[in-house]
Amino acid sequence: MKRFYLLTALFALTAAGCVKVDLVDVSTSPLPENLTVEQTDYTLGPIEERTATVVFSAKGDWTLSIVYDDADAGDETDADAAWLTADAAGGAAGEQSLGMSAARNFQAAPRTAYVDLVCGEQTVRLTVTQTGLSDDMDFSALFDETFAQKLQERD
Q: Are 44 and 128 in contact, with CB atoms under 8 Å apart?
């Protein structure tokens, strides 16, 4: 009888030793998302429609920085290129609605800025492109109506 119990125990140990254990490779596991951003690409007008609202959710404190595509090569935050501003440079966790405003672009060429939102170890880059002036743009809305008429009469 002892032999039967001994063989049964040996069989149980052998069967238990054959169980496959899957190890999770933490180096390839995705990090939990700290930031959820509704939209990452924005296009603004050169004279009108120069504002946008970024809506996002942050699970912790967040920061914002702006990098300009047209800044000098040595300094991507060149003050001369600082045409885009944001309502805040950081904040606390929660649902956020952040306004961005662009200065008027009187050049024909478009310009691009990158807004980096950082929360914990996660960074989300937003791309903001402001279009340039075109030949068919109507500037009359920028001036007093009487002044605009006087300008048109001079042609």
A: yes
